[in-house]
UniProtKB/TrEMBL annotation:
Glycosyl hydrolase family 13 catalytic domain segment(s): 44-444
Species annotation: Formosa algae
Residues spanning the membrane: none
Entry EC number(s): 3.2.1.10
Name of the protein this chain belongs to: Oligo-1,6-glucosidase
Enzyme class: hydrolase
Length: 584
């Protein structure tokens, strides 16, 4: 009988609505257009901290090449490489001196090609970091621009006369001090939202835009699969340069971001460059809000594909303060960023090179719960709706670093804001305490490969930033040897997600958004539903489930290899327990 029904169905499908079938294949229930970059899991590499191949204590591209098999065995689809370009490293590469040259410490263009081909040979794509809101002040463009008002490159940057001996206005830099620096023979000031060695480019200048399009084509013609675009929402400057009021000064990003010509610039870049390649673009929409971010990623606007939303990852953050936050608060932010209309596609991440370690912020990095909560966060990251971004080291549960003094830090943001923080009444001790919760350098300590000297990151006896003293226990080798490790849990989840349209495209529904301890949601696909239940607390909890989940099968959990079926609607969850069920 069943077989007869199938035949009839096939005939109907074949005859009646051929187009419909393709249409069905192409879209899920809510008409999402399928795109390869919606189905990928991206692994971010911070090259300075990944693997050193020549013993100078600084990570480099040959070091990454030596770990391509490791990345392949993990099962990620795309590598996002933080800036690898020639740079004097005022902000660790986010200050580019030559956009067509590889940073000396990192290697050569040949090394870059070897990395690209090595990844492609294993079916892994590579996106690079496009830092085009600002350049280095050592870039020849700026050297020319600074040399005189009449220099043809003058207008590649934003110069303004000061007021008597003061800068043009009271705008602050994100890295402390004024956003203006006086330079050159004419005594004018140039704008720098970040460090003095990161002058902002003037996107109003057509010729500059053409030059940027050219350097983008340089890398795309090499076969690079796309760009992560640094602070892309800042490239169109405000038209009015009046002083900010106190509110404005607290969050200058809201004044600096989403200037009047941003859409025009992104559309032009798309038309002139991006539309000519099958690539992915993800913008760092720092300074935006949901509505504005959705405009630049709406597929109907032909600007960029994806954007990083910072609300969830920065829950509880108030500048340099990491305040307490509640799970319902976090869940509502996650819901907001995944509940986008069908012309948009979310991104999901919990960490990167600008934020503390995920297990230390969102999990519990104590010896008792570090492994269990790291696995729970793996399940959260890999069952969310949106293109997922992982950060190097989270797949082995690396934690924040125990900083005890300021000279252990490297980050320009921390050093640059020291005076301001102290002047605002904070003490060095409390600033250090804050930094031990939210400093960017937590994410930048060298990758921990083994329990040997310097965690196997380098064969040398020094590293550019301290190795976390917990490396003898927390390292890749230990993870590879233990099949119940965090690494192998990530690998299993990546396997479950790969090519799984129900989990990738399925609708997202939080089923207990006000629950103080449990994060539980469903992913409702075309022909299968997944139920994710996460106890994000260190105490046991009984969690009630709707009857409709009876019969769902447990396919993976972070405590044991149990694969039971839901028989009754009360689950007793251990501390930091995570379960993934699928419908029958
Ligand atoms: O992450 C931040 C807060 O902790 C911001 O400080 C950060 O500067 C902002 O998100 C923009 O970040 C990007 O541009 C910066 C660079 O320092 C960051 O590493 C990069 O991700 C300037 O290029
Ligand atoms: Ca090196």
């Amino acid at each position: 009988m069943k077989f007869k029904l199938l035949i009839i169905l096939a005939i109907i499908l074949n005859t009646g609505c051929k187009q419909d079938t393709t249409k069905d294949i192409e879209t899920t229930k809510n008409e999402i257009k399928k795109e390869w970059w919606k189905e990928q899991v991206v692994y971010q590499i911070y090259p300075r901290s990944f693997k050193d191949s020549n013993g100078d204590g600084i990570g480099d591209i040959p070091g990454i090449i030596s770990k391509i098999d490791y990345l392949d065995s993990l099962g990620i689809d795309v590598v996002w490489l933080s800036p690898h370009f020639d740079s004097p490293n005022a902000d660790n590469g986010y200050d580019i001196r030559d956009y067509r040259k590889v940073m000396e410490e990192f290697g050569t263009l040949e090394d870059f090609d070897t990395l690209l081909n090595g990844l492609h040979d294993r079916g892994i794509k590579l996106i690079i970091d496009l830092v085009i809101n600002h350049s280095s002040d050592e870039h020849k463009w700026f050297q020319e621009s600074m040399s005189s008002k009449d220099n043809p490159y003058r207008d590649y940057y934003i110069w303004k006369p000061g007021k008597e001996t003061n800068p043009p206005n009271n705008w602050p830099s994100f890295f402390g001090g004024s956003a203006w620096e006086q330079a050159g023979p004419d005594g004018e000031y140039y704008l720098h939202y970040f460090a003095k060695k990161q002058p902002d480019l003037n996107w109003e200048n057509q010729q500059l835009r053409e030059e940027i399009y050219e350097l983008m084509r340089f890398w795309l013609d090499k076969g690079v699969d796309g760009f992560r675009m640094d602070v892309i929402a800042l490239i169109s400057k405000p038209q009015n340069f009046d002083d900010m009021d106190n509110e404005g000064l607290k969050h200058p990003e809201y004044t600096y971001a989403y200037g009047p010509r941003l859409h025009e610039f992104l559309k032009d870049m798309n038309k002139e460059v991006l539309s000519k390649y099958d690539v992915m673009t993800v913008g760092e929409a720092y300074g935006g809000n949901a509505e504005k971010t959705l405009e630049i990623t709406d597929e109907r606007n032909n600007e960029i594909d994806l954007a990083f939303w910072f609300d969830a990852v920065r829950v509880g953050r108030d500048n340099f303060k990491q305040n307490e936050w509640t799970l319902p608060e976090f869940k509502k932010l996650v819901k907001a960023q995944s509940d986008v209309n069908s012309h948009n596609w979310p991104t999901f991440f919990l960490g990167n090179h600008d934020n503390p370690r995920v297990v230390s912020k969102f999990g519990d990095d104590s010896p008792e719960f570090r492994v269990t909560s790291s696995k729970l966060l793996a399940m959260l990251l890999l069952t969310q709706r949106g293109t997922t971004f992982l950060y190097q080291g989270d797949e082995i549960g690396m934690t924040n670093y125990p900083f005890t003094s300021f000279d252990q830090f490297d980050d320009v943001e921390i050093k640059g804001n020291y005076n301001k923080i102290i002047a605002s009444g904070s003490t060095p001790e409390s600033y250090l305490a804050d930094l031990n919760k939210m400093a960017r350098d937590h994410a930048r300590t060298p990758m921990q490969w083994s329990n040997t000297n310097k965690a196997g990151f380098t064969s040398g006896d020094k590293t550019w930033l301290g190795v976390n003293p917990n490396y003898p226990e927390i390292n890749v080798n230990n993870n590879l040897q233990d099949k119940h490790s965090i690494f192998h849990f990530y690998r299993r989840l990546l396997n479950i997600r790969k090519g799984n349209d129900n989990l990738i495209y399925g609708d997202y529904k939080d089923i207990a958004i006000d629950h103080p301890q449990v994060f539980a949601y469903t992913r409702i696909g075309k022909n299968k539903t997944y139920l994710v239940v996460l106890n994000m607390s260190k105490s046991m909890v009984d969690f009630s489930l709707d009857n409709k989940f009876k019969g769902y099968n447990l396919i993976i959990n972070n405590l044991n290899d149990d694969t039971t079926t839901i028989e009754h609607n009360k689950l007793t969850l251990q501390p930091w327990e995570a379960r993934l069920y699928e419908s029958n």
